[in-house]
Write a structure and sequence with these properties.
This protein is an alpha+beta fold. It is 19% helix and 24% strand. The chain has helices at 35-44, 164-173, 203-211, 282-286, 301-321, 323-329, and strands at residues 2-7, 11-15, 53-57, 62-65, 69-75, 81-82, 85-86, 93-95, 100-102, 112-117, 151-153, 190-194, 214-216, 224-228, 243-244, 249-251, 259-261, 268-269, 273-277, 293-294, 296-298. The longest helix is centred in the C-terminal third of the chain and has 21 residues, at 301-321. The relative contact order is 0.17.
Length: 330
């Protein structure tokens, strides 16, 4: 009742929406880099809650299903195949015992794909979350990325007595329409709100952040993206107390290179904060690769809140329309 890891891929780890309520104890939240894709994969696999999905980076793993399962893929198209047959993203799919799920070359767009299985993977929650925090080695599957030979247990494999071909046909007949608010975000600029210390930065630095082009440094990972571009500085340097760190906060150390805090961010930070990336555009960052260029565009708080509300209503609408899918899998 599991999946066997034949090849682990570049970096494959289990992530849910993060470990909430423990930052004050020094426990990072972790969680999926692209929450939109993580939630889409779960919904399309017939999951109503938030079980962990497998976050795969650039080159995905090769997995063998040792039990029948319904699964779905979202995020970057990593060239998935089942027994050599190409698979689409954003569709509920069925694998039978013995089937091999593999992934191809680096995707043309994006860097992270997400695999969800119906019922979720049978992982032991740590502090209420199934997310892997790789730096400290806890959560997910033994606190680490996948390795060759791992056995990934399924919480709810499909009944082996069902006609899997008939089930796959029935799932394929389902019409799945993604609300526009859940489509793959493609924008020329990433939207941001002024950070807590925005007005303490020089006018030239504020103008540069809003108008110049930045490149994601090779020294970037799930913890943060370092940006190469114009040096940013405060009008008058000063000492400040450390404060809680958030996903999407843009910090500027004394060297002037901005850092965008990502899913595996530290719990607190003492550098000045020039900006906060709008939540709705965090998936754009999650799918960006080192070497890629970014531009930033200001957005009003009310507009950012409205976009967040539209996204949440779209997910609720999608769950309603997928009720027939969950009924087929019940």
């Amino acid at each position: 009742m599991s999946l066997t890891v034949i090849k682990p891929g570049m970096l494959s780890s289990f992530q849910d929406r993060g470990r909430e309520g423990y930052q004050h104890q020094g426990i990072p939240a972790a969680g999926a880099m692209d929450e939109r894709a993580h939630r889409l994969a779960n919904a399309l696999a017939g999951n109503a809650g938030d079980p962990a999905t497998l976050e795969m980076t650039l080159t995905g793993p090769t997995l063998r299903f040792d039990a029948p399962a319904c699964f779905a893929l979202a995020g970057a198209d990593l060239g998935a195949t089942l027994n050599g047959r190409e698979l689409p993203v954003h569709r509920p799919l069925v694998a039978q015992a013995g089937d091999t799920l593999a992934f191809g070359a680096r995707p043309a767009v994006g860097v992270r794909g997400y695999l969800a299985v119906h019922g979720g993977f049978a992982l032991e929650p740590v502090m209420g979350s199934e997310s892997t925090y790789l730096r400290s080695g806890f959560g997910g599957f033994h606190g680490r990325a996948l390795a060759r030979g791992d056995q990934l247990p399924l919480r709810k494999p499909l009944d082996g007595g069902r006609d899997m071909d008939a089930l796959q046909d029935a799932l394929w007949q389902l019409r799945v329409y993604l609300p526009s608010a859940l489509g793959a975000p493609r924008r020329s600029a990433v939207r941001f709100l002024p950070g807590m210390h925005w007005h303490e930065f020089s006018q030239a630095s504020r103008r540069a952040f809003a108008e110049a082009e930045f490149r994601i440094s090779p020294q970037s990972d799930r913890m943060g993206y370092r940006l190469l571009g114009p040096a940013l500085s405060m009008s008058e340097p000063r000492q400040m107390l450390s404060e809680a760190a958030c996903f999407g906060t843009v910090q500027v150390p004394s060297g002037g290179e901005a850092i965008i805090l990502m899913a595996d961010r530290q719990t607190t930070g003492g550098y000045p904060k020039i900006a906060q990336i709008a939540t709705v555009d965090l998936p754009i960052l999650a799918q960006a690769a080192p070497g890629q260029t970014l531009r930033f565009q200001p957005i009003e708080l009310e507009a950012a809140q409205r976009l967040d509300g539209e996204r949440e209503r779209a997910f609720a609408q999608l769950q309603d329309t997928l009720a027939p899918l969950r009924a087929l899998l019940a």
